[in-house]
Design a protein that fits this description.
single chain, about 140 residues, alpha+beta, 5-stranded mixed beta barrel, 3 helices, 6 strands
């Protein structure tokens, strides 16, 4: 595992977190077309939200032939949250239903995620997938 140098922080992007085996693992902000594959099927009018993410980004994680979308964002109190795998998304209303059965409200940010969000994602990835993070040389400086 190589070290992340302080001068690299200013240019660190979500895509840049994967520094080895980039043909096997990649991170990106999901496109509108990719999000639309997670069609909204729920008919409930009384949805109980687990949380509100503002701002929020749909992160696409690709590992070999698998693709999943997880929503990363910030709570009103300033903490970061990353959801379990998104199953259904109503992008226009900003509502997400996840594999764990939770509903979230998301205020989408159309810009690339800022450095603090990229750093929080790197820490999350190390906690969830330490072997894969090490194998693909995801920076550990944030964990």
């Amino acid at each position: 595992m190589s070290l992340l140098h302080l001068d690299e922080l200013g240019n660190l992007t979500l895509d840049g977190l994967v520094r080895a085996h980039r043909d096997e693992l990649s991170f990106a902000v999901a496109s509108a077309a990719q999000i639309q594959t997670l069609a909204w099927k729920h008919m409930e009018s009384d949805i109980r939200l687990k949380g509100v993410l503002q701002p929020a980004w749909p992160f696409l994680i690709r590992f070999k032939a698998m693709e999943i979308i997880r929503i990363m964002g910030w709570t009103e109190g300033g903490g970061s949250i990353i959801t379990s795998q998104a199953e259904e998304v109503d992008y226009g209303r900003g509502v997400v239903f996840t594999r764990s059965g939770s509903f979230y409200s998301a205020e989408w940010d159309e810009n690339e995620p800022d450095l603090s969000t990229v750093m929080a994602f790197a820490a999350f990835f190390w906690m969830q997938y330490p072997d894969l993070a090490g194998y693909c040389d995801v920076p550990r400086a944030f964990f």
